Amino acid sequence: xxxxxxxxxxxxxxxxxxxxxxxxxxxxxxxxxxxxxxxxxxxxxxxxxxxxxxxxxxxxxxxxxxxxxxxxxxxxxxxxxxxxxxxxxxxxxxxxxxxxxxxxxxxxxxxxxxxxxxxxxxxxxxxxxxxxxxxxxxxxxxxxxxxxxxxxxxxxxxxxxxxxxxxxxxxxxxxxxxxxxxxxxxxxxxxxxxxxxxxxxxxxxxxxxxxxxxxxxxxxxxxxxxxxxxxxxxxxxxxxxxxxxxxxxxxxxxxxxxxxxxxxxxxxx
Length: 269
Fold this sequence. Notes:
Shape: globular
Structural class: alpha/beta
Order of helices and strands: EEEHHEHHEEHHHHHEE
Number of strands: 8
Distance between the termini: 26 Å
CATH topology of the domain at 6-162 and 239-267: Nucleotidyltransferase, domain 5
Number of helices: 9
Largest sheet: 8 strands, mixed
CATH class of the domain at 6-162 and 239-267: Alpha Beta
């Protein structure tokens, strides 16, 4: 029986056009490891070559999904995004956000509270662009092409938890929260810890996704990486995690949390 390849886009969109957004493309066969085939720490980087130029700074810009899809050079089956999405204007917390908090508060996980201003109009632009490009909103299982909302923190727990205790609750890899994670540590110690955790997550993802080594270099915890370098690295990890949830969705191994105005998909065993 011939295996049919599918393509899944994973995005970690910044909630402001001023900041760059991570974006990745996975090639996927049912019951096989997906392959990372294209990535960018920003939309422009994804358009230009599809590989991060780590010595350059990633810049923010508005999303253009017609251009993003064209750059993939393949028919994209699913788009998974880590940003609040809804067919109507988002003005505050949704049932989807509250459902995540209820189910995962014991794992120290909740969602950011969306508002009219953040992500605001950007979420509406993304939703409408995807509809205009022929994608259906995945508030339930839909025929592809479709797009869904996901949440990487939960994906880490559901995909990698269990026997691996470090992934059984909120994993501390968010670069901008390193002061909150380790308030009493000196700067060098905080940097060592956050780089180590980014590398740990990278290696875990590499155990289930091929092609990582071509895109994401292994990190050396004692190296003096710039914070913007590490933030771009983190954004790509979130984009890959988002795409992995998309693969689960295609296999019927994800569940929706939310209602008719917002749904977050999480992997299920």
